[in-house]
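User: Okay, second chain of the day. Same drill as before: sequence in, structure tokens out.
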Amino acid sequence: MQVTTGRVRMSALQRRDQLIEVSRAVFAERGFDAASIEEIAAAAGISKPVVYEHFGDKEGLYAIVVDREVTRLMSMMTESLTSDRPRVLLEQAATALFDYIDDHTDGFFVLLRPHPGGAQRGTFGTVMREVATLLSDRLVLVCQRYGYPEELAPMYAAMLVGMVALTGEWWAEARTPSKEEVITQVVNMAWNGVSHLDKDPTLVSREEA
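Assistant: Same drill. Structure tokens below.
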């Protein structure tokens, strides 16, 4: 049997995909500033010039990694919102986010980490704001059903998505209880809050002052 030694030969497309996969793991663990082309090249089993040949520099490689993860997460979130029932919509959105965190953990941590130069475009928060915009249109139905002002739908959407997103960040580190249990509990808290809102809420602290 012939044994092949040395570097595995790949097509240009295969090498590019490999470098994106490898660099995503490195960026997730170390962040943009601490990660180096040398480290990425070593993890991929190639020399630095090959990385530069494909992506130009570290910023170019990082931008592609982030763009892929934003596209993946946004697709999973938007494709999940298929129901015309408000509670099911909330369950679908929460499930899609937690599935992404579970199946693409490195990508999730890349999106969470600070971006070079403090840029915010393409971050996890940006994706969640886009999801909130999509959800707000559906929450108009909730407002109509329970008699809340329809103009508050965008605010309610931001609250609900924020609750799910922050819980997702926590669970990405904790990993307990189970994904299904966390989804069940966060939907329970969010939905029961929506369905039992006071029509004319006040702040208790101000009433007591």
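Confidence is low (pLDDT under 50) at residues 1-6.

User: Thanks, on to the next one.
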